[in-house]
Amino acid sequence: EVQLVESGGGLVQPGGSLRLSCAASGFTFSNFWMHWVRQAPGRGLEWVATIKTDGSEKYYVDSVKGRFTISRDNAENSLYLQMNSLSAEDTALYYCARSLLAATSHWGQGTLVTVSS
Amino acid sequence: QSVLTQPPSASGTPGQRVTISCSGSSSNIGSKTIHWYQQLPGTAPKLLIYSNDQRPSGVPDRFSGSKSGTSASLAISGLQSEDEADYYCVTWDDSLNAVVFGGGTKLTVL
Q1: What residues form DSSP beta bridges with A10?
Q2: Which of A80, B4, B8, B52 has the most Cβ atoms closer than 10 angstroms to its Cβ?
Q3: Do residues A108 and A8 lie in contact, with contact meaning Cβ atoms separated by under 8 Å?
Q4: A100 at B interface, C-beta within 8 A
Q5: End-to-end CA, chain B
Q6: Which of A57, A56, A81 is nearest to A4 (CA)?
Q7: Cα separation of B49 and B35, whole Å?
């Protein structure tokens, strides 16, 4: 069974940092592009970042460029999102997703990030 | 302001057919395939339609997708109460080098 389990969310002060993790199982992780998508409370879905199978290509939404870094460890079947210089606008439920734009799409249940003093 | 434009809301009565539109441009819908997600309240999004008009296994044939030029549509026939959810279109944008979502459409079954 395909599983994506996010962790690492929590309450952080403005300007702080967090590292989100996504543990993948039930499929060959290294074969799939992976993504982070977020959803602010009561708002729509917002794509955050994408990473290619081998990590050689990375893409980010403009609002997080220079602050967030997506990475992966294919040996550990894990996806990461390092988030720095956090602001209230980054408060959201963060989803890890496989193959966002394909038939093999699968999402985790999300981890909540709250940025507040 | 989303790159892909969806109506914020839609509604219908049980058994009716409803359509949800998604409008974009030549750099996204006009040159890429469009995908649709359904998000039931309190749950993670689920793929409903991929590659414009394909249904993943397990998705009822009441759901269908189409694309023409720089616009796409999701149609739901035989509307049921359990279809009440938020629906999002999504694709890749060549100009932005980014994944772009529509703003989402909240479907209410009256």
Answers
A1: A113
A2: B4
A3: no
A4: yes
A5: 28
A6: A81
A7: 5
Residue in A45, A62, A105 nearest the CB of B101: A45
Is residue B84 within 8 Å of residue B76, measured between CB atoms? no
How far apart are the C-alpha atoms of B43 and B46, rounded to whole Å?
9
Segment B60-81 mean pLDDT: 97
Tell if the CB–CB gap between A107 and B44 is shorter than 8 Å.
yes
**pLDDT in 10s for each residue of chain A, 117 residues:** 999 999 999 999 999 999 999 999 999 999 999 999 999 999 999 999 999 999 999 999 999 999 999 999 999 999 999 999 999 999 999 999 999 999 899 999 999 999 999
User: CB contact, 8 Å: A103 with chain B?
Assistant: yes
B75 class by beta-carbon count within 10 Å (0-12 exposed, 13-18 middle, 19+ buried): middle
Q: Which of A112, A109, A18, A29 lies closest to A72, judged by CA?
A: A29
Query: In this complex, is the C-beta atom of A109 within 8 Å of any C-beta atom belonging to chain B?
Result: yes
Under DSSP, the state recorded for A90 is G
Q: Tokens representing B38?
A: 């359904």
> Which residues of chain A does B100 touch, with a Cβ-Cβ cutoff of 8 Å?
47
Q: What is the largest CA-CA distance in chain B?
A: 40
Q: Which two tokens stand for residue A61?
A: 């939404």
Closest CA in chain B for residue A41 = B42
B76 three-class SS: strand
